[in-house]
Fold this sequence. Notes:
heterodimer; A: alpha/beta; Aspartate Aminotransferase, domain 1; 2 domains; seven-stranded mixed beta sheet; 14 helices; 14 strands; 40% helix; globular; B: Non-ribosomal Peptide Synthetase Peptidyl Carrier Protein, Chain A
Amino acid sequence: MVDLLKKFEPLMARYEAMLEAGSDAIGLVNEKILSPTRGLINGKETILAGTNNYMGVTFDKACIAAGKKALDEFGTGTTGSRIANGTYGLHKELEAELAAFLDLEHCIVFSTGYAANLGMIAGVAGPKDTIYLDADSHSSIYDGCTLSGARLVRFRHNDADDLAKRLARSKDSEGGKLVVLEGIYSMMGDRAPMADFVEVKKQYGFQLMMDEAHSFGVLGPNGRGLADEAGLYEHADFVVGTFSKSVGAIGGFGAGNHPYFEAIRHHSRPYMFTASPSPASVATALEAIKLLAREPERRDRLQENSTRLFNGFKALGLEMGCDEVSPIIAVRCPDEPTTIAMWNALLDAGVYVNIALPPGTPNKICLLRCSVSTAHSNDEIDRITELFGQVVAAGHGVAKAG
Amino acid sequence: MSASSAEILGKLKELLQKFNSNNIELTETTDISTDLNIDSVAVMDFIMEVEDAYDIDIPLNVLSDTRTMSDLVKVVQKEMG
């Protein structure tokens, strides 16, 4: 008999090495969450700098009240999928609120952000179509592409010319063409050069899906994401996003103006065959979307905080994921053991950041990834910078910009 | 192997060399991922190099059935028509 799990021996050895070096970087327990920027970890109050809680809404009083009210009025769970008994008035209300926020005709809510990418990609593309995906795409995009059964062509990260070259190779192919881009890439924090891609779109013709998971609520004059910031919103045929970042809940959405958009509800498996998001999650998301709409100053504050941390790291001479400011500020580290040692040193000193290791990162890069919140105080940002400085000074060998 | 297959194999070995940090001997039976101990992203990056070398698309869909160098030679031949 072949032991099915035997193949994971090297994986578990790698994990054991991580545990021997200190805390469990990929299974860390938050014993208590004190605020959007503070938690209790290993019994110690810790600054949270790796939560994707960009808008800091998780403890907003109105959001919490809306969640409690939904629990009281609709119960703990829906116990069914959207196509059976799992569609409540709240789901429809959230879809309408999001459609208005996005200024798009149609919006579908999914149970998670992961499911939103799976459901939207497999919802619009099928086996006769071709999907062109950026090499650094999130796993949910890769998995959505696989689920769709479409022909999958990968182009070099953020390289519109490389996409054009691949489109030219298959210009006579049958079926539709879908290009998937991300507003902000989750590991390095860089934006898609959308204007370049729109030029390629005009030349070759395809439908464009923007995954605004990290940019929804964050970028653009209306908080709709990168396409909004770039002034190219009308070129995004489909917009996908999540509630687990700026919205501070769980769930995801897909939206667009296509007259047949609602067909996605009738054949997208990740929409049809999973339980719908719980009433409390939907209600808190609904309240948070309203909050994002009425408090655009949160985006300005986030930008200020991000710039403050970015400049602080620059002053330390750290090499970052990219040269542009976004709420994702990743520090490049030389190798896995050093990255793990630095991560532990930072945690022990009182700041939690994300650890990102290959193959979850592009080009075998090891990263300590910070995500900034509008709720971070200047003192917290400065403390994060100070602690990075101390850890680097302690000689853990983090890469400094040459 | 026909001359053309041998030629493709030679080119693939050349392209794979930069991913071959353990300097494994590359033959037509080499399993690209497991013998070289490289992850899925590295395999896809290597495939991109092959695509550009031959000006073809190698859809990601074929990779699950493409284990060895010999398998990849066949994919390149098919995509080249």
